[in-house]
Design brief:
Elements lengths: L1 E12 L2 H7 L1 H22 L3 E6 L2 E6 L2 H19 L10 E13 L2 E3 L1 H12 L5 E4 H6 L6 E8 L8 E8 L19 H16 L25 E4 L3 E2 L7 H15 L6 E2 L2 H4 L9 H8 L3 E10 L2 E10 L5 E10 L3 H15 L6 H6 L8 H14 L4 H17 L4 H17 L5 H18 L4 H13 L3 H14 L4 H13 L3 H14 L5 H13 L3 H14 L4 H13 L3 H14 L5 H7 L5 H14 L4
Parallel strand pairs: 4-6, 9-11, 9-12, 10-12
Antiparallel strand pairs: 1-3, 1-4, 2-3, 4-5, 6-8, 7-8, 12-13, 13-14
Amino acid sequence: MERKLAAVLEADVVGYSRLMGLDEAGTLGTLKSHLREVIEPAVAQRRGRIVNTTGDAFLAEFPSVVDAVECSVEMQAALEIRNAGLPEDRKMRFRMGINLGDVMVEGSDIYGDGVNVAARLESLAPAGGICISQPVHELVGSLGLSWEDAGEQFVKNIAKPVRAYRLQSAAPATRLEKPAPSAGRRFPLPAVAMVSAAVVFVGGLGFWGYQGRYATPPAAERSTANLKPALAVLPFNNMSEDPKQEYFSDGITEDLITDLSKLSGLFVIARNSSFVYKGKPVNVPQVGKELGVRYVLEGSVRKAGKVVRITAQLIDAATGHHLWAERYDRDLTGVFDVQDDVRQKIVAALAVKLTAGEKEQWGRKPTNNPEAYDLWARGLEQQAAFNREGILEARRLFLRAVELDPAFARAYGQIANTYTTEWEMGWSGSPAELLETAVSFAQRAVALDDALPQAHWVLSRAYAQRKKYDEALAEIEKAVALNPNFADGHAYLAQVLVYGGRAEEALRHVEEAMRINPRAPYWYVYIQGHAQFMLGRYDAAVATLKLSLERNANYQATRRVLIAAYGQAGMKSEAEWEIAEYRVADPSATIGRLREISPIRDAKYLERYVEGLRKAGVPE
């Protein structure tokens, strides 16, 4: 296969799914118009070529990084001019990433890390913005552009960290004046450079060069007036003399994250990512940089018998200043009042405006029974072990919790979660019974608290596993609507969309989940690989699914799709090895049985999956 060095530009539309939901025909027409009248001419005039377009994204290559960068600046400015007369919610903005690297050439396509890094850089760019790699930055210093050093970024599917730079301004414009590489340039660079500078600055508002001072959920385009404060809640330290009391401090942290993430005016990092810092010395500015947040909440819990002391402090990660700090001494029945007060202080300190619905839900206690709460927190600790013994012990604790408080919705949801997990991992010989039980407990959770996103999430999982696609989609969409910061909700919405034949849309949601939860768990990566496979991107799917399997070799759904991806990619020897591995867990695996248990509803996708299994050598 031919290899070469190329400047690669990857771009996609921000909030494309939302735009399509507002006006499908109009959005598609606008995108085609932008491609035909702005993007394609600009790329051609800079000696580049469009490698491919997929839905709302395009990939281009250039013989020079200077051409690639100047072309991106011109395109962004021209596109913003086109946006000028549109309402904010109808504007179409692109993110762009540029890398210089080695690529493999096959026909008219290019592959390899050179392309993958450009894609990852694109995901780090703000709406209307541009992000470049260090090799590109080293070669464009003479262009008069101002770049913000975003530091080294650990990005998915790339082994080493990537140093990234975001465009801050393009001034002074006169320094950009130079002869066009070909006659008839459509967008004169001096005229558009300062427009682009304003556009990128609005999109960036850089804090620490990562996610911006305020992080914005990637499915929405927002003006600077509507940007959200970004917060990470670190695991509260267990200051009790008994280290076994750690489950209690973790439970309080989990509750705070769950409740704060429901607020539409706040961007909250998911639990998986903030708990990376558990038990480690914390440098708050570094945490802010790594997670892309401006604010950090940290605290401690000391529990002795029926008395508890909780401390909490809200810190501005940019300055290290404490915005608010408090210490509470309560008996166990007062824990919920403490949590409520902490939430209220955060909302006040960050000037978060609550909607009418949020005000109505605000301050509701998960349970009035401290012993039930204690059992729930113990169950979460057991569940985190993610093995059969831990899941069954967690179930026992959650069941005991609902015995003490039959209205404890969160505990019912977690009971359902243990059953769906047991089904997914193949730990029981009665799958139909497991799913029926999961549905029953999840429905009970929803009936008790219809505003609990996790209850709708687990009910969606149970419905999907029973091949009730419409019900699964309705529940997971409700979960995400209730909590736009619900990373697991976005990830599972992506999975349900894949089942229904909407893999392109699924990729957007799983990428959004990965932004909210930067330390994405294995199953997010699996869903991303699943979507890539269904789109026919077999090489990318193989790389992604292998990464998922490295993180959890026991998740057999990943291995099944990886086998099919190997089959479709013609990698028969690799497929044979994975089939042998899979048969350790499922000795009687056949195409017929794997088709039967697959939740894939879309006929075309299901046949692609089955065909891959067949090509890989799985027996009929």
